[in-house]
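Subject: complex prediction, re-run

Hi both,

The earlier run crashed halfway through, so I resubmitted it with identical inputs.
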Amino acid sequence: MARIVHYLNQFFGGLGGEDQAGMGPVSELGPVGSGRGLTRFLEGEDRIVGTVIGGDNYMAQGGSRAVDEVIGLIAGFDPDVVVAGPAFGSGRYGLACGAVCKAVIEHLGVPAVTGLHPDSPGAADYRAWVPTLATAETAASMGTALERLAHLASRLARGEELGSAAEEGTLTKGLRRNTFEDLRGSTRAIEMLLTKMRGEPFATEWPLPRYEPAEASEPITTGAPFRLALVTEAGIVPAGNPDRLPSGWATDWMRYPIQDREGFAEGEFESVHGGIDTSFANQDPDRQVPLDAARSMEQAGRLSLHSELLSTTGNMGTLRDMTRIGAEMGRALIADGVQAAIVGST
Amino acid sequence: MNSGPRRQILDVGAFDVSDVRAGDKTAFADGILTINIEELEDQLSADPDLAAVSVEIIRPGESVRVINAIDAVEPRIKVDPPGTDFSGLLTVPRLVGTGTTHALKGVAVVETALPVPGEPRYWREAVFDMAGSTAGYSPLSELINVVVSCEPTTALLESEDRPTNVFEGTPEAVEYNKAVRLAGLKAARYLAETTLGKTPDRVDTYDLAPSPVNGLPAVVYLYQLAIPFLHGEIAPGAGAIGGAAHLPTPIHPNELLDGALVCGWNAIACMRELTYTVQNHPIIEDLYARHGQDIDFRGVVLFTNGDTRAAKERLANHAANLAIMMGAEGALINYAGGGHPAVDAMMICRNLERRRVTTTMLSMEMAANPGESGFVHFVPEADAIVSTGNYEEAVRFEPVERVIGGDALIRIEDDPSGAFEAPLAIVMASTHQFGGTRIRGEEY
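This time it finished cleanly. Structure:
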């Protein structure tokens, strides 16, 4: 018999809607809410020994402390496997399911599984660590999702290794590795081309990255002077690179004070970007980040320049890291009252 | 008047080699290639840029690692018309890709050369193993290799020139590398001479005559060159990476198979355009094999890459035009590797798709960690890509009994005979852009 613990949010746990989203985690014996549906599909004597319920907002705002509270309650049931959700396409709930499962696997050493829509934020952040059943976007597909989750949970509880994502209907980890095919690449290319020419379904071996569309902000209507920040991915740093910003694969970003500068002088700032010829930027970093021009416009009363340069290196940056860095920079600038930013690119 | 299409037919007489041995007389009989090593070494040592040349035979399964590799060449000789071997290099530029060529199959001549000052070293590391888990990555590991190891003169080793052209190196270094490559080509011709007057095991005929079957999908191959050294010269026009772009050129595939294009510089080993790979070009071979069966193969367009936006637009428009002029309904495009070339290859894909030519690309991946996509550039139209493997993935080299090609690796400090970890990038032709290997990247 496998001991299963089920994690749910306040809504699917039957404790209320958005009005209860701030509730801290609670535990109940046995199955609750959608857990009763899950019970119908469990194999043999497998059963849900307990349910832990966390409020969407509490989990979203509580960070690792909130997850720790949930883990403490889950550990009290001594589970063989943890099932979270399914959360389908939902944002906060899906992120909580992913975070809880990852912590269960890492801190309790117990297998965990969740069910999420491939495009949900939780899938993006946790698919690399958490076995995740690919679900439809809404709870209308609850029945099928529960049946398949029950099956996956039973097998994980028995210590079975899951097969490939395609075999299991789970999400891939979103990682890539080398493997060997039966046919050589040239032959596969011809087969793919002929299939595509016939209008039949074909599967690219290297899917294009998916970019979320970046929507343009509304024009600034407050009039001059508006607050402008200078941002760059060109790896512009003080000479000598005191913070060791990497020349590629950056995972972090820097802030450098520029309020006392009329422009960037050669030898005081430099570019550490490893993917371009930096000699022109090093001769005059204003070519990369137009501080001199912005300053003269400030003196003309047309804008008010933010006191810091925000800098990272875009070279070889992963989409995931750069998306996060962009969001972090954006939040920091908004917090400082900045209305607009110029991103000097390479 | 003599009517009908004028045809260009190449017959390659294939001689299967089961073993290569050292002996008193260089000869080929009953599948055994015998080499008088001393005679071959003497012939190759005559070049004033080389202080010494030594020749060794290595076979699949032997515990050997080849380092400082430069190129690999299939032993071939032009029977008809004679005297056109590696046109432009061993002979004056003449028409190739027609008549008869003999080839020793299952064998490659591999040159190794110690690096000299003034040589660009960023990409030069090139290694392959004949046994162990890493042997599965290089096509050369499956061949019997006649390794021609070249040593530079003392003057070359002591020169301190810094290159002005970081892609090619100093004139002395360029000359030395050319001498090494010529030694490989000469050795290839010398070995294939043993087949003259003999009957091949089979004859492969390459004939681009119009498909006898109507209505087959018409396919053009757009070949992105990393190394535009055609007939021994940078051609057509100027160079690609690090130079001005020239316009794409239509070319008869037989020319490429028959020695018109040889490896010209030391690109990253995994994507180096080995002469052997071009002589046995997987895409061209596969298209020919199906020409008139389920494909109407219309020929090849060579292109490189622009170094400005305008040059890229011009090049990508012209490449698509040529393919369409040749009747393409479908197109295969390979990406040569590197940063700039990715943009041109993707632009051509976009241009062709917008003009209703269906495309499939072949591309190596470069992702230093498994969570990133590895794309340099992409267009939404590139929805059909065959991956030829991620060359940034690290592989574990196992200890070997013997190392050929020097005492030290270039950028890796470990003992070259020992165990070390390095990206697949340093393994010869491991993720090469013509899809000749079975490796690919997959999402998991």
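Residues 56-75 of chain A form the longest helix (20 residues).

- K.
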